[in-house]
Amino acid sequence: MQTSFPAGRPVGSRRIGLIAFAAAAALLLAAAPAFASMERGRAAQARGDLRAAQIEFRNEVRRNPNSAEARAALAQASLDVGDGDTAEKEARAALERGFDRAAGTVLLARAFLVQSRFTELLREIPPPDAQAQPAVAAAALAGRGLALSGLDRRDDARAAITEAVRRDPASAFAQIAASQLALAEGDRQEAEAALDRALAAEPNNVEALIRKASLQFERGDPRAAIETFGRAIAVMPGNVIARTRRADAHLRLGQDAEARADIEAALRTSPGYAPARYQRAMLHARAQEWRQADEILQQLGATLLNIPDGLLLQALVKQNLGQAEQAEDAARRYVARRPEDPRGAKLLAQIEMAAGRPDAAAGTLSRLAQRGAADAEAFDMLGRAHMATGRPREAAAAFARVAEALPENASVLARLAAARLAAGDAQGAAEAATRALALDPTQTALHQILAGAALARGDLAAATAALEKVPQAQRDGELVGLIEGTVRLVRVDVAGARSVFETVLRNHPGSIRARLGLARVAAMEGRSEEVDRLFAEVLARDPNNAEAAARLSAAARSGTPRAEAALAVLERAQAAAPGEPALALATAGTLLALGQAPKAAAILEAEPLRARRAGNPGILMLLAEARAAQGNWQGAEEAARAALAEAPENVTARQQLAVILVRSGNPRGAETLLQLGLDANPGSFVLQQALVQLVRQERGLDAALELADRIARMPGTRPAALVLRGDLLLAAERREEAAQAFARAFAEAPSRDLALREAAAWAQAGKRAEAIRALEAWLSRTPDDPVVNGQLAQLEIAAGESAAAERRLVGVVARAGEDWVALNNLAWLMQERADAGTPEGKATLAEARLLAERAYYISPTPETSDTLGWILAREGQLEVALPLLRQAAAATVARQRPDPAMLYRLAYALRAAGQRAEALRILEPVVAADVQFPERAAAARLLAELRGG
Question: Which of 830, 840, 777 is nearest to 805 (CA)?
Fold first, then answer.
């Protein structure tokens, strides 16, 4: 039987049940996704998928908008991906829904900070009152402190953060803030200690772990940094900052495989993360996979500029791809951004060197050194650049800095030795080479340096001994040949020297020094045309070669038959390089000395040289002299004033302008000019002397003496001013008064200069005893002074006290082995007492010859040439003696002061060589002249012998 139900009831009951079931199901369905979204968000955070975590938490907020926990989770996830705007909104919402006040305040503060909205933070998070919970107060104060720091209110920031730590020392956020403040103030130790306190409170605080690891890395402990970054990654595997910074630490240790793992993990989390992509490019570069590295860097585009070392890597990659212009551009931009980083300057200098621009490289590295940022490698590169540009003195200074940092590096010492030798520092070169050989005896090339240093000192025996140690495989080197050729030349083995220098030139066609050596040989052989040709070749290759220009200038001024040809060579060389200041000065100076002022002025006024005047006042000074020589006083004054404007501190330029003013009729202007210079530089002897001489010329000796005394009393004018009175009296030929003035000054402030001046004045007054007493007064203070002992020896020689002079000169030479005057005088005295007919005399002559060779090499003057030639003649080596004696005699004739003693010795050697006619021709005018000299009687006897046949 079918049961009937009241209409509506059964149906209604069933509907209620269905509705209830549906509601329950809806609740279950709603709860399940909510739970799943939070879990999926946590899981995404754990695996490092921060964007997915943010999406899941956002979904949860949509489903459950009143969940404080969901809002806070979304705020944190947004902070993790750098979305400060969302983080701020959700942190505020979490707080409004009852989220933990301290944690919520931290979230809100961080959201403001990540957006650099410091003022809004200070408005939104007010200072806590005294009753606030410690954790809440610490969060608020720490956030405010960081905002105040961002606004550069350092004192207020310090007060807020200090108070935050006081309120709650266990607040990780407050300790992190304290760390940031300490770091901003340069206290890295306290910064790390604050992070340790933060981690003690929250061991898994990822921000604190990353900050601590970064400090460990920056203080040079990459292994500790790797361990700390690892702790952060264990908490948050997808943290790309921790991953990429740990990769940096692995790269520092050369652990490329480990770095690659972190980089790839970071890129899986954030495929477009620029630092990780940059690190991938770095790995390609380390593997020399330049194309792959370049592709990534190009993809980064403008982002590369925001990576600290981005331009540096780009420059390196472009350099290795052969794209020199792009490499230099990137390196130059990097150096402009970070001028204190030696890596950028070194790379730029390397690129400039490769492009054949060592001068630019030297400039790049010099600027780095001026900033105090150059390391040993940078100084080493600077030294090489200076050597390549022909600046050995600067190179030696740079290599010396490297040697200070790396005192046990034999290669550095070897480069230092070579630079010092090239700069003319023979002693320094020998010291560096000796130290290098002691560290590494296999550096046999250093024996060449030692030979060159010995030769520079004139020690031919030591040079020869060092050359003998050079291995056979190195004996065809340029330096070895130059040393051997020079030794032969000094020993007057002219043919042997020519052969060696010609061999060097064949093996090294560009050698300038071989050409200079051949020029010296040709000069001794009287081949003036070859001399001129060789000097022309030198100047064509090196227009600033001082020796070639000086030798041609001297020849042009000599008045000999060669003078005209030498001047022509000099002028042609200058015309070929009209913009070279040194060559222009040498040529114009020579023309001016020869009375050709218009031609000199034309060279100095030429357009190519105008651009080189800056920093070179000598050009303008010589131009002023040339114009003055033409009577163009206005033009001379203009040039002199321009020179002084170019170098206001140049006392010679000021003196020159004063002379021009006097000669153009303005002595008062000249006096004012000199006085102004002296006011600025009271210790300048040049200005002091110029002023007193001007006053003497214009107002007489008494006025000048009064001025000299006044200058000597002025502050800052001594010791130079102490000689002024004596110099004035000596110039007025009041010799004894001058000597007495020098003596009074010496009693007041003893000095070598005053002793020498007093002695010279007494000697001119004919009072030898007083002169000796003046020199001995200084020697009582400094007994080993080589200069004063040398002067005293000359007085002893003049008095015929040869034995005493010889003893004194032995000491001088022992202490000052490069004093060519002492060497020459000692050699002369020794040969003078030597009896060539006895074994002892022959040994003495041989010893004297070694000294004379050293003197001649150091300074090949007529005097040293005469001494060496005479010793060789006495030894019977007439073939080698005659060129030297001819050279000496010809030089004194060219000076228009023929030395009869030198002419006698030449005639003697000619007679001994069987060349009687030439000997007679030379000796007759010597004896006929009414000139007294020590060998006059011997010359008369020789002439009688020659006439008698």
Answer: 830
Domain termination site, one of 224, 244, 265: 265
Q: CA 808 to CA 802: how far, in whole Å?
A: 10
Q: Is residue 834 within 8 Å of residue 849, measured between CB atoms?
A: no
CATH number at residue 231: 1.25.40.10
Which of 151, 185, 202 is the endpoint of a domain?
202
Q: Answer whether residue 25 is part of any domain.
A: yes
SS3 129: coil
Q: pTM for this structure?
A: 0.65
Looking at the 3D structure of the chain, how many domains does it have?
4
> Is there a single domain that holds both residue 196 and residue 233?
no
In terms of Cβ atoms closer than 10 Å to its own Cβ (0-12, 13-18, 19+), residue 813 is buried
Residue 712 and residue 727 in contact, taking contact as beta carbons nearer than 8 Å: no
Taking the alpha carbons of 754, 756, 759, 763 in that order, is the dihedral positive or negative? negative
Which segments within 470-516 are labelled E, that is strand? none
Three-state DSSP at 930 gives: coil
Residues 262 and 240: their CA atoms lie apart, in Å, by 9
Per residue in 804-826, pLDDT (tens digit) is: 999 999 988 888 877 889 999 99
Domain containing 191: what range?
A: 100-202
CB 643 within 8 A of CB 624: yes
- φ/ψ bin of 186: left (φ > 0), alpha (ψ from -120 to 50), beta (otherwise): left
- Give the pLDDT confidence of 663-686 residue by residue, as tens digits: 888 889 888 888 888 888 888 888
What CATH number is given to the structural domain containing 60? 1.25.40
Of 196, 212, 203, nearest in space to 235 by CA: 203
Nearest CA among 120, 109, 245, 231 for reference residue 180: 109
